[in-house]
Amino acid sequence: MNAPDSRNRLEAELVAWLNLRLAPPGVHITRDTALFAGGLINSIRILELIAWTERAIARRIDDVDIQMNNFRTPARIADVFGTGDGHAGA
Predict the structure, then answer these.
(1) SS3 19
(2) Largest CA distance in the chain
(3) Distance (Å, rounded) from C-alpha 19 to C-alpha 63?
(4) Element (H, E) at 15
């Protein structure tokens, strides 16, 4: 699977999981939903989100890449971790 397909698949699966697992009643999470600013992710739920992301990409996320900016929206998560190239970088 090429990088854009991998990224798009991760984003779609992530949005579906977030809506099933973390969205409160009446809230629909989209690719651009602000997870922290919208109050959907807190210090406990971020651990769950990181674990899900690691399973989805089949690799460990480096500690240096665990930054609020990298997890701010589902689209950002897919951009950073959905390319399959390892380290997220900037």
Answers:
(1) helix
(2) 36
(3) 26
(4) helix 3-21
Taken in order of first residue, the domains within the chain and their CATH numbers are 3-81 (1.10.1200.10)
Tens digit of each residue's pLDDT (9 = 90 or more) over 3-27: 788 999 999 999 999 999 999 999 9
Cα–Cα distance for residue pair 73/77, rounded to 1 Å: 6
- Decide: 74 and 34 in contact? Cβ < 8 Å: no
Q: Model-level pTM greater than 0.70?
A: yes
Per DSSP, 47 falls in state H
Residue with tokens 């109050």: 39
| Sequence letter at residue 49 | L
Cα 83-1-67 angle, rounded to 5 deg: 15
Q: How far apart are CA 13 and CA 62, in angstroms?
A: 21
